[in-house]
Amino acid sequence: MASIDEIMILARRAFWPGAALSVLLLSAVSASAASLTVVNPGFEDISGEIVQAPFTFGPLNGWDLYDPDTITAGGAGGTYYIGTLTPTEPDPIGAPGVYSYFPGGGAEGQRVGIAFNFFGSGGGGEYGFVQTLADTVQANTEYTLQVEIGNIASGLGFNLDGFPGYRVDLLAIDTLNGNAVTILEQDINTLGQPANLIPEGEFRTSSLTYITGAAPTEINQNLAIRLVNLNVIDPAFPLADLEVDFDDVRLDAVVVPLPPMLPLIALMVVTLVVPRRTAKIIARR
Q1: How far apart are CA 237 and CA 4, in angstroms?
Q2: Which residues contact 177 (CB under 8 A, 6 or more apart)?
Q3: Quick one: which of 202, 107, 198, 101 has its CA closest to 155?
Q4: What are the φ and ψ backbone dihedral angles of 102, each rounded to 5 degrees?
Q5: What is the 3-state secondary structure (H, E, C) of 2-31?
Q6: Rounded to an integer, what distance in angstroms lies between the CA atom of residue 269 and that of residue 266?
Q7: 272 within some domain
Q8: Residue 23 within any structural domain of the chain
Q9: 117-119-120 Cα angle (round to 5)
Q10: Is residue 13 part of a domain?
Q11: Nearest to 127 by CA among 210, 42, 227, 255
Q12: Quick one: which of 211, 171, 199, 203 has its CA closest to 187?
């Protein structure tokens, strides 16, 4: 017959395999989050662009021009422009910290991304910029895309009243099939008209979420982000230029937790396996 001390030692030996298994099961329940890499997410890198302070023009570093109707002539003028804007202080002594176009400055950093076209070209088609990421679509994952959307105020000779609308797209790109595009999720101007949730000269956060299943059709396809000026004439300001501003693009991925029954299964492992294993060891003694 084994002594009490021997039984305790044997119980500990029997417990650890069951405990290790339960830890593995429970760890699978805990979601692990990761911020995916977006190149030039705040549009601060302007190397190689055409500089005309406080603007830069041309496709932004890390981003490609999105122009499905070929209306922008490359995005560097003379009617359509993509690039960046640096809100500046017109009167740094009399009104320090008050910036042109966006009185509070950019949403993140100094610069913001812009998609601008002059009055008279509204309604000609949407345009903007897009980035294909190195990360790919994975199973059982929740993706959250957030972008700061700016409603630029008039200033320095530009009539920018109103808002032409925006769209934020989370995409999958099949690089092995002619770069075929699948829209996973999108925010179609929910902050714009008719809600009008972005005051003039301010930013608001666009947020969208997409959850994959166990076997998504787009598995291992590259994720992509597309930022669009819808270029719709604001009926309240038909003579205004049309611009949408973007800043602080971020994409997070979280592993979707396994079914809630798993913790109970882990407990059952410890409850059922450990006593049986201990009894067997004692019997052998």
Answers
A1: 87
A2: none
A3: 101
A4: -130, 95
A5: CCHHHHHHHHHHHHHHHHHHHHHHHHHHCC
A6: 5
A7: no
A8: no
A9: 105
A10: no
A11: 227
A12: 171
pLDDT tens-digit profile of 86-135? Answer: 998 888 899 888 899 999 999 999 999 999 999 999 999 999 999 999 99
What total of structural domains would you count in the chain? 1
Tell me: pLDDT of 4 over 60: no
Q: Is 221 helix (H, G, I), strand (E, B) or coil?
A: coil
Domain ranges, residue 54:
41-127+147-170+182-207+228-249
CA 274 – CA 270 distance, rounded (Å): 6
**Which amino acid makes up residue 11?**
A
- b (16+ CB within 10 A) / e for 203-218: bbebebebebeeebeb
Q: Which residue has the tokens 């604001």?
A: 234
Q: Which tokens hold the place of 167?
A: 């769209």
State which amino acid sits at residue 184: L
Residue 54 lies in a domain: yes
Mean predicted lDDT score pLDDT of the chain: 86
